[in-house]
Amino acid sequence: MAEAKDSESTDRDATRFPKQTAFNLGDVVTGNVKILSETEKERLEQQNKRMVTPFQAQKLEQEARKHWDLFYKRNENRFFKDRHWTTREFAELLSSDSGPEASENVKEAKQLDSDESKSLLEVGCGVGNLIFPLIEDGHRDYFIYACDLSPRAVDLVRQHNLYDEQYMKAFPCDITTEEVFTTLPAGSLDIVTLIFVLSAIHPEKFRSVAGNIYRLLKPGGVLLFRDYGLYDMAQLRFKPGHKIAENFYMRQDGTRSYYFAEREVAELFQEVGFTVLVNSYIHRRTINPKENIDVPRIFVQGKFQKPNI
After folding, report:
1. Spatial separation of the C-alpha atoms in residues 145 and 150, rounded to whole Å
2. What are the percentages of helix, strand and coil residues in the chain, rounded to 5?
3. What is the mean pLDDT of the chain?
4. Where are the beta strands (DSSP E) in the chain?
5. CA distances to 82, 141, 242, 249 from 162, in Å
6. Which of 247, 231, 222 is nearest to 33 (CA)?
7. Which pLDDT belongs to residue 216?
8. Residue 295: what pLDDT?
9. What is the distance between the alpha carbons of residues 271 and 120, in angstroms, rounded to a whole number?
10. pTM confidence score
C-alpha cells in the first residue's frame, strides 16, 4: 500500500476526482490534505520513537477476530450511534418512494429499474447501526445482507427486534478472504457499503477486500465508502507505543485503525477496476456543547462504480 502523498502533490491533484456536495453546515469538501501545525508535526514524530514490535503486530493480526468479539462483548449495542445520516449523504440508499426530492436523488444516483430484484451488502455491519435505521425509515427496496468479522456482533444483529430474514440476512465473514462467496455469488449485488471498516484491516489486505467487493457487485453496481482521513484528530492523539506502520495504529483494546489519503483510496479501487464517481476529504467539526466537545474530524468519502459491460 502506497504511503499517503505529501501536501504539495495533493494540492496539485486536488481537482483530479469529482467532489460531492457538503451535506452538513460547516463541512469542507476538498482534495487537499490537512496542513499540520508545528505542534502536530512533533506529535507524529513522537509516535515514531516507540513503535509496536513486529511480534506484537503479528499477534494483533492473528487475534483480530478475538479483539472485535471482546469489543462487542464489552459494549454490545451501546458504543456506536445509529447512522441516520447515510441516506442524506448516499442517495443510493433511498427507497424509490421516498418523495419527489428523494426520487430525484435516486435518479441522479443511477439506481436500477424498480422491477429488478435488488440487493445490498453492508461489510462490517457491527450491531446494525446502518441497516436498522434504513429499515426504520422505510427504505426497503433492497434485500439486505450484512456481514461482520465478529460472530458476537452478528448474533446481536440477529437478536434485534427488526431483524427478519424475509428481507435481510446477517452472517459472520472475513471479507479479506474468499469466505464471503460461500454465502453470496459473484455479480449478485447492486450496492456494497464499506463505512468505517477498511481502516480496521491490515493495509496489506486492502487490495483483497477491494477485489472481493468488485467481484460481488453487478456491472453498474456501486461501492459507498467512508473512513478516517489522513491527520484526523484521532491519529494525532496516539501516544508512542501505538503506531504499527505508516498511518496504521493499535488502540488500547487491541483493535486497529488506519488513516487514509484521498488519492490513496481512489487508486486502491481503481486498481481493481472501479470507476471513481466522487472522492474527497470531508473536514467536519464534532460539537457537543453539553460535554464541552469541539473536535475537528477528517474523513475520506467516495462512491466507486463497477463499469457496465
Report:
1. 15
2. 35, 25, 40
3. 85
4. 28-30, 119-123, 143-148, 168-172, 189-195, 217-228, 243-245, 248-250, 256-258, 275-288, 293-305
5. 14, 16, 38, 35
6. 231
7. 98
8. 79
9. 23
10. 0.85
Q: Which residue has the higher pLDDT, 242 or 110?
A: 242
- The pLDDT confidence band at residue 78, using thresholds 50, 70 and 90, is low
| Ranges 93-107, 161-175, 245-259: which has the least confidence | 93-107
Instruction: Using DSSP, state whether 119 is helix, strand or coil.
Output: strand
Pairing outcome for strands 168-172 and 189-195: unpaired
Rounded Cα–Cα distance for residues 228 and 262 (Å) = 10
Q: Nearest-CA neighbor of 269 among 300, 299, 304?
A: 304
- Cell numbers for 140, please give them: 426497503
Return the C-alpha cell found at 28.
469542507
Grid cell in block for residue 3: 504511503
Are 224 and 194 in contact, with CB atoms under 8 Å apart?
yes
Burial class of 255 by CB neighbour count within 10 A (0 to 12, 13 to 18, 19+): middle
Q: Which three cell numbers stand for residue 258?
A: 488506519
Answer with the residue of higher pLDDT: 111 or 145.
Answer: 145
**Closest among 297, 131, 133 to 227, alpha carbons compared:** 297
Can you tell me the distance from the alpha carbon of 71 to that of 69, in angstroms, rounded to the nearest whole number? 5
